[in-house]
Specification:
372 residues; alpha/beta; Rossmann fold; 2 domains; 6-stranded mixed sheet; 4-stranded parallel sheet; 13 helices; globular
Length: 372
C-alpha cells in the first residue's frame, strides 16, 4: 500500500454517520449520541516509516474524525454531548491543561450545538502548539477559568457549578479528556472498527496496538471494543500523564462503567470485563520528566515522522509514536517472539489549527499564568 501523507483536512464532503457498529451489532442499544464522525477512519500501512523502523507500522487515522477538528476527542464527544443534551443541559463544564485538545474540541462542538462551554484550565509548558490551542478556545467562545493545580480543580469545579445553577443554568460536567464510561463508548466503536477493517481486508493481526494513556478513556474503550470483537491484540498504553493522574484502577473503572452501560441497554452485550482488563498494559518508558515535556525519543520520533509526512505533537503523539518505534526495534511478545507489526492509533487532529485561532484576540493577561 502506498504512503498517504496526512492531509491538512478531509477533502470529501463530511456527512455524519447516523449508524454505528455498536448499534448495528446490538440493535437494542439505545444510548444518546450526537453524530459527528462521517464513518470509520482509515487503517493504513505507512511504508516509509515501516522501513525506517524495521517492521510494519500501521496507522489508525483518527486524525481524520472530523474535517474542522479531528482526533480522538471527537469520538468521545459524540456520546458525551449526546448524553448532556439528553439530560437537558445548556452548559458544559470541563477541565484540561492550557493547551487541552479536549477542551478545544468540547468548545467547538458544544458551541455548535448551542451549549455554553466553561473550561477550567491548569498551567502547561508554553509552546506554539499550546498557545494556538488556547487562542482557539478563546476564539471559539470558551469561558476560561485558570486553576493553579489539578488538585484544586474539584473545588473550583464545585464552585463554578454552584454559580451556574444559581444563575439558572443547567450544567453538565465532562471529566478531563472526556474519559469516563460514557466517553469510552466512542472508543468501543473504534475497537470494533479496527477488528472489522482487519477482517474485511484479511489483514494479519498486529503484535501490538499502541495508544497514548492520558486520561484513560481511549484505552478503556479500545479494550472493550476489541474484546467484544474477539480481537485479542495487546494494547500498549504509552503514559503521557503523571502516574498519580491515571493508573490501572481508573482505567478499570472506565472499562467496568462502559460495559455496565452497554449491558443495561442491551443485555446481549457480552460479559467481557476480565478479557478487556487483561488486554492492555501501561508502558511508563516514554513519560520522561512529565506531561507536555518532550523527551529526546519523542523529539526524534517527531522529526522522523515529519520527514515521512506525519505530523505529531510533543505532549501525546510524539511520545506515543516513540513507544511504537521502540517496540518495533526491540520489543517482544508475551511468548518471546520479536514484535514485527504494530498498529499505532493516531489521536492528534490533522486539520489546520490556525484557522480556529484567527478570531481570537491576544491571550488576556489574566491567563498569562497558564503558559509556564
Amino acid at each position: 500500500m502506498a504512503d498517504s501523507p496526512l492531509r491538512a483536512s478531509i477533502d470529501v464532503a463530511h456527512v455524519p454517520s447516523k449508524t454505528t457498529l455498536l448499534e448495528s451489532r446490538w440493535p437494542k442499544l439505545a444510548l444518546p449520541r450526537v453524530p459527528l464522525l462521517a464513518g470509520p477512519t482509515p487503517l493504513e500501512l505507512h511504508e516509509s516509516l515501516s522501513h525506517a523502523a524495521g517492521g510494519e507500522l500501521w496507522i489508525k487515522r483518527d486524525d481524520l474524525t472530523h474535517p474542522v477538528y479531528g482526533g480522538n476527542k471527537v469520538r468521545k464527544l459524540e456520546r458525551l454531548l449526546g448524553d448532556a443534551i439528553a439530560e437537558g443541559a445548556d452548559t458544559i463544564v470541563t477541565t484540561g491543561a492550557a493547551g487541552s485538545h479536549h477542551v478545544l474540541a468540547t468548545t467547538l462542538f458544544g458551541k455548535r450545538l448551542g451549549l455554553a462551554v466553561h473550561g477550567l484550565l491548569v498551567p502547561q509548558a508554553a509552546s506554539e502548539h499550546v498557545t494556538l490551542d488556547l487562542r482557539a478556545m478563546l476564539g471559539l467562545g470558551a469561558e476560561i477559568t485558570p486553576v493553579s493545580y489539578f488538585s484544586a480543580v474539584p473545588a473550583a469545579t464545585a464552585a463554578l457549578i454552584t454559580r451556574l445553577r444559581l444563575s439558572g443554568k443547567k450544567p453538565y460536567v465532562i471529566p478531563p479528556g472526556g474519559s469516563n464510561g460514557i466517553g469510552a463508548l466512542g472508543y468501543v466503536e473504534a475497537g470494533l472498527e479496527i477488528a472489522q477493517q482487519m477482517l474485511e481486508r484479511r489483514l494479519p493481526e498486529p503484535d501490538a496496538i499502541v495508544v497514548p494513556l492520558g486520561s484513560g478513556g481511549t484505552v478503556a474503550g479500545l479494550a472493550v471494543g476489541l474484546a467484544a470483537a474477539g480481537c485479542l491484540v495487546p494494547i500498549h498504553a504509552m503514559r503521557v500523564t503523571p502516574r498519580g493522574f491515571v493508573g490501572r484502577a481508573l482505567v478499570l473503572a472506565q472499562i467496568r462503567s462502559a460495559i455496565e452501560r452497554l449491558r443495561l441497554s442491551d443485555d446481549r452485550f457480552p460479559r467481557i470485563l476480565g478479557v478487556a482488563t487483561d488486554l492492555y498494559r501501561i508502558d511508563d518508558h516514554e513519560l520522561g520528566e512529565g506531561y507536555g515535556l518532550p523527551t529526546p525519543q519523542a523529539r526524534a520520533a517527531m522529526r522522523l515522522a515529519e520527514e515521512h509526512g506525519l505530523l505529531l505533537d510533543p505532549t501525546y503523539t510524539g511520545k506515543t509514536l516513540a513507544g511504537a518505534l521502540r517496540l518495533l526495534r526491540e520489543g517482544t511478545t508475551a511468548s518471546g517472539k520479536r514484535i514485527q507489526r504494530v498498529l499505532y492509533v493516531h489521536t492528534l487532529s490533522s486539520a489546520p489549527l490556525r484557522p480556529l485561532a484567527e478570531k481570537s484576540p491576544s491571550i488576556p493577561h489574566r491567563l498569562d499564568r497558564l503558559l509556564t
